[in-house]
Design a protein that fits this description.
By secondary structure, this protein is α+β, with helices and mostly antiparallel strands. It has 6 helices and 13 strands. A 7-stranded mixed sheet has the order 6-3-4-2-1-13-12. It has a 6-stranded mixed sheet with strand order 5-7-8-9-11-10. The longest helix is centred in the middle third of the chain and has 14 residues.
């Protein structure tokens, strides 16, 4: 089986490029971050990524689980609009699967689902964050999936909030002794307590396969990239066949590709 994890980037008008990429990869499971769900008809097309991706993958990935984090009609900083969505939208994460879900939950570990538009103190206050926890049935076997887009911290070095985040994710993953994959953009560089905490209990495939970057280097207004902030962790009930990044500039993050079997 094949899983792809990708932060598609709310900053870019790239949903159709993402769709082309996903069609070419033909994955069985997608763990996506930074999707935007339009709640109004007036929402600008570049902020309709959830709708565009779902419609394009309906035949191959019919099972979907969207986990909204917050809603807003714009992003503001110091009282000025930085990003106008054209109408009310939800930002969140989504798991798309070729296999049916047995159960799902979208668990907020930092704040609750709420109206959130102020980015003035984003690195220290952030917007609500949650981890998706889902179980699929594949040929009679269970597979637990966790997908998240993590808290921001200064320099992505971590703080008390990100350590609490990783503690929550670890505890959620350990509730069941079942094949488990944890994927997402953790917004954390490798050498910090939160990532080490997860690595003590799960195989950190970024570390194990010596991945040195999960972000491309852009020459525009996006963050420069070239570092590791995206991860996939698995337990010993997952047999890893292939793990790598896919070199693409469709987003400000590289896609993580995992080919695996359930033991």
């Amino acid at each position: 089986m094949k899983l792809i994890s990708l932060n598609i980037s709310i900053k870019l008008d790239n949903a159709h490029q993402v769709v082309e990429f996903l069609h070419a990869q033909n994955a069985d499971i997608l763990a996506l971050q930074e999707l935007v769900n339009p709640l109004d008809e007036a929402v600008f097309p570049m902020y309709q990524s959830k709708k565009i991706i779902e419609e394009a993958t309906a035949d191959t990935l019919p099972y979907r689980f969207f986990g909204p984090l917050r809603y807003a009609e714009a992003s503001r900083a110091h009282g000025k609009i930085r990003r106008d969505f054209g109408g009310m939208v939800e930002q969140g994460n989504e798991i798309l699967s070729a296999y049916p879900f047995v159960n799902t939950s979208n668990e907020h570990y930092y704040k609750s689902y709420e109206y959130s538009s102020d980015r003035t103190n984003f690195a220290t206050e952030d917007h609500p964050r949650a981890v998706q926890v889902a179980t699929c049935t594949i040929d009679g076997k269970s597979l637990q999936l966790l997908n998240l887009h993590g808290l921001r911290s200064e320099g992505k070095l971590g703080d008390e909030r990100t350590l609490a985040q990783c503690t929550y994710v670890l505890e959620a993953a350990l509730r069941k002794k079942t094949p488990t994959i944890i994927a997402g953009d953790f917004n954390l560089l490798p050498d910090n307590p939160g990532i080490r905490l997860l690595s003590n209990e799960f195989r950190n495939l970024i570390d194990e396969f010596h991945i040195t970057a999960t972000r491309p280097i852009f020459q525009d207004s996006l963050e420069s990239g070239g570092n590791v902030v995206d991860y996939i962790f698995v337990n010993d009930l997952i047999e890893v066949k292939v793990f790598t990044t896919i070199d693409t500039t469709i987003s400000d993050h590289l896609a993580l590709l995992l080919e695996f079997e359930i033991k």
